[in-house]
Design a protein that fits this description.
Number of helices: 7
CATH architecture: 3-Layer(aba) Sandwich
Distance between the termini: 24 Å
CATH class: Alpha Beta
Helix content: 25-40%
Structural class: alpha/beta
Strand content: 25-35%
């Protein structure tokens, strides 16, 4: 059974009386342990697809199964639970809270989950070690470089040990050299068995994945 299964997934929005397809009959699988890039230009539907994969939105038609669970049948609180436990999100803009230290930013999702303090300490330390920033744990985001902030964001995504790391344009706010350092980190995490999905418009970033799913005008193209 694939970790992610999309079959005939469609999503549309209304512009006046006419529906406009953001996604049109999209089908693909992602297996456990794959490193996949979803690539397309602006307006291609890749962000809508990311939102559906990440359980931030649901399809209007078709089937999406995440780790054997039919997502369309879930209520809002169940979607929130599956997001918290199954998916680690990494965003282009880092989304770190400026008043919290690196340690506290990584710890926050575990606190929301109700993980006991001692267990949180172990998980946060492990996550910061995995991105080689344990020595910066007391620093706030403004005291870190862009690359370090993204590595902290990756540590936050990893702390709960989700089966999927979902990265939306993870190098988009970084210079080329720092962006490549982030890609090397993602490749190391993949080599350790993590399933990684990168959303990108950049062929140079997509080419570093095992497989590329290309999307244009809401449809997967060969």
């Amino acid at each position: 059974m694939p970790l992610i299964h999309c079959e005939g997934v469609s999503k549309y929005y209304r512009m006046g009386d006419e529906p406009v397809h953001a996604l049109d009959n999209v089908s693909f699988d992602v297996e456990q342990g794959e490193f996949v890039a979803i690539m397309g230009p602006s307006g291609s539907g890749k962000s809508t697809l990311m939102n559906i994969i990440g359980c931030l939105d649901v399809a209007d038609q078709g089937q999406y199964d995440l780790d054997g669970t039919a997502v369309a049948r879930l209520k809002d609180n169940q979607l929130a639970e599956i997001r918290n436990r199954k998916i680690g999100f990494v965003f282009q803009s880092f989304n770190l809270l400026p008043r919290l230290s690196a340690y506290e930013n990584v710890e926050l999702p575990l606190t929301y989950r109700g993980v006991p303090r001692k267990e949180r300490a172990i998980l946060v330390t492990k996550a910061l070690e995995s991105v080689e920033l344990l020595d910066r744990k007391a620093h706030r985001p403004a005291e870190l470089s862009g690359g370090q902030q993204q590595r902290i964001a990756i540590a936050r995504a990893l702390a709960g040990d989700p089966p999927i790391l979902l990265a939306d344009e993870p190098t988009g706010a970084l210079d080329t050299r720092t962006g490549q350092e982030i890609m090397e980190l993602l490749k190391r995490l993949h080599a350790l068995g993590r399933t990684i999905i990168v959303i990108t418009h950049d062929p140079a970033i997509a080419s570093q994945a095992q497989r590329i799913i290309r999307i244009r005008d809401g449809r997967i193209v060969v």
